[in-house]
Amino acid sequence: MISKNRKLNVGYIWAMIGSAVGFGPMLSFSARCYFNGGGAFLIPLAVAVVVLGFPLLILEGVIGQQLQLPLVSAYGRVAGRIGKFFGWLAVFGVLSIGSYYCVITAWTIAYMFYAGVDMIPFDTATFFTKTFLHDSGSLTTIGTISVPMIISIIGIIACTWFVTVRSVKKGIEKFCSIFLPILFVLLVGFLIFISFLPGAWQGFAYFLTPQCKFLLDPSVWLAAFGHVFFSFSLALAIIVGYSRYIDRNVNIAQSMLWVVIAEICTSIIAGLVIFGGIGYMSYVQQVPFESVITSSLFGLGFVVFPQVIVMFPYILRVTLGTIFFFCLFIAGITGLFSIVEAAVGNFEVEFGWSRYKAVTIITGMIFILSLLYVGGNGTYIIDALDVMVSGFNVVLSGLLEIIVFMYCAPQIVQHSVWFSLSGKRLFRYYALKYGALVALCCVLISSLIVEFNGNFGIAHVIRWGWFVLASCLALACAYKKK
Fold first, then answer.
1. Burial per residue of 356-367, b for 16 or more beta-carbon CB atoms within 10 angstroms, e otherwise
2. Of 165, 401, 414, 430, which has the highest C-beta tally within 10 A?
3. Domain assignment of residue 228, given as a range
4. Coil, strand, or helix at residue 456?
C-alpha cells in the first residue's frame, strides 16, 4: 500500500477546475434542472456525485499520478493492446467533443461582440437561428455558411494553440489560475444584481424546491448520472492526462474534493442566475414560469438569457450582456484547453511527437472538424453526434475504466486513497467498484433501448457511423508498429 499523500498542488487543482467548470455547470446543469423538476434534480445529482463523480475523479487521478502515463499508455500497461484500443476510443471521443466545444465557444465570442455593440434584438430566437446560425431547418441541408462563426473559430483555435503549446504549468495552469477567479467573481456579482429583479425569487424558489413526483421518473436519474460525466469531464482522458504531471506525494483525494466543490458552487451560482433571469422574464411577460423555456442547452444560453438582457436599459444590457458572454467564454475556452491537452499527451507518448507538433496537429484537426458545424445544419449535426460522443461512448469508456483499473490493476486498487487511516476500505472504493458499475450498466442499457426504440434515421447513421470509424482508427493506433 502506498503511503498517505500530504501535499496539494494549487496549479494542478486550477487546471482540473478549468476542465470541470465548462458549459456543464454554466448551461447544461440549469437546463436539466428546469426540465427535470427544479430542485428534484438536485437529489439524484447528489447521489450521482457521491457514487460516481467523486470516486471516478479519484480513480483517474490515481491512474495518471501513479503510472505517470496518459490514458492510452496506462491502459496498455495494464491490459496490453486491447487496453490501448479502449484508450484510443476515449481519445477520439474527446477530439470530437472538442470540435463542437470549439464552435460553441466561438458563439460566445460573437455574442460578446453583439452584446457590446447592442446588436441583439428582442426576438433573440430568430436572431440566433436565422441571422447568426443561418439555420437550414434540416440535418441534410447545409444551407448558408456562417462567416462570423468561422472568424470566431479561428480566434478560438489561435488562442488554444498559444496557451497549450506551452508546458501545462506555464500555459493552462497559469491561464486558469488567473481567469477562473474572475469568472467566479463575475458570477457572484451577476447573482447579486439578478436578486433585485422582480420575479427573480420565484425563479430561485423553483430552482431549490424539489417537485418530488420527478424522483419516481427513471429518466431523471439517468439524466443526473449523464450530467456528472459531462460536467466533471470523466472518462475523456482529461483527468489522467493532467495527473501524470504531478508528484506521487500530491493528495489526490483532497485535490478532487476541491474540484467537486468548485464545480458544485459554480453550478449553483449559475443556476440561481439563470433561474432568477427566467423568473424575471415570467414576471415581465406574465407567463407561467414552467412555460418560459422550450429548448435546452443552446436555447438557454443564446436565446432565453439574451432575451432577459435586452429587457434592460441600454447601458445595463450592453454591460450585462458582455459580462455574461465573457463568463461563458472563459468556461468554454478552459474546457477546450483540457480537451486538447488530453489528446496531445497520448500522441506525444504513443507516437513520439514533440509537444509543438502534437499541439499543432491536434488543434488543426479540431479546426477542420469544427468546420462541419458552420453551415445551416450545424446544430443538427451536433445534436446527432452528441448522443454518441458525450453519451454512449463516454459511458462505455467509464465502464471500461472501472473494470480494467479496479479489477485488473493491483497498484491502483492498493493505493492509500482507498483506505482510512486505520487501514479499512473507504466507502468511495465500494461505491466505484460496485455501485458505479451497476449504475453505468443501467444507464448504458436504458440509453440503448431508447436509441433503438424507434425509426432508424440519418441521425442514427451519423452517430453509429462515427462509432465504427472511431473504432477502426482506435484499432489502427493500438496495433501500430513501434
1. eebbbebbebbb
2. 401
3. 10-478
4. coil
